[in-house]
């Protein structure tokens, strides 16, 4: 029958003597390895020499005891020395004093100590990693001052909620960790990345899959976006820029050295490259500099039913659509419809018959102050940007204006930004 768990800390185990079956000392605990593969992390080996590639297999441990030392069932000559495997990591080296992601709180935490638990089975003791101690008490414990704060509560992040930022290969390589990160909102990943140092930030970002990377990048502050893109190789950077909203890409490229931005533009498709160059030609604080070219257009000849069917076809790609824009074959804006207009109209009615032709718009040179006043006055979620001939050039969303007017409110702006990732679609 399994006995009650006994708990202690890694800091208390390190430097404990290791004894063989004859009671002879064979070394001290320099570190312990755990198997990190999705289940509760189990200690699989003990590093007892300076050779980090070799360790004593934990299978031969009879007793883990921080007071009397670690007892083995073999003599020194018969010790099972094994190589550390790819899916194992030394927790002292890769967790202690390192940053981890607390997936529950979506934030970075520093590991000050590690809570371990032993259980006895078949005459042997097995050691498990239970939690990371991220509180001040854990730090004071390591320097022998825990007695001063024994009334403080320990602050733990349990193993199910831990994603290490480093592994033996220097990045997130474990499928479990990547799967855990997929549960986080892109804005949370963006916050995590922005709180990392440069090296950690670059390695972490490169480990994300394409969708996560593009979604998270679109949520970050501009300076961080530029830093991330600059840290990637040309193909990775250009692919990433093609997968985020064009206005975001244009802003990033506009902040990079001209030589570097030209290299990335040349790696993109001709259509995307031209679109981004056009956006970059506008002043940053003008309507042209703020607008995105992601919106939905329909011809006025479509019926309500046809338009709704086609919007449903876009549902897998679009997050939220507030307006659809009615244009002619030359992309001249003829009218605007809200989703409410669309779903309350007669199914057989042509869009042109009930579209709003009293269009509130701005030109590409309009200042952000003017745009903000218009959006506020008419309670708009987006305003179209037109050329002097009435051609639809793009739209400006309320969150883009908020970000520009109140950079200190960028967190609030980011909460809205994920709602506006619409792809330009033209339906004939």
Automatic annotation (TrEMBL):
PROSITE patterns: CBS. One of its GO terms (cellular component) is membrane. It holds the Pfam family MgtE_N. GO terms for molecular function: magnesium ion transmembrane transporter activity. Residues 291-353, 355-411 form the CBS domain. This is CBS domain-containing protein. It comes from bioreactor metagenome.
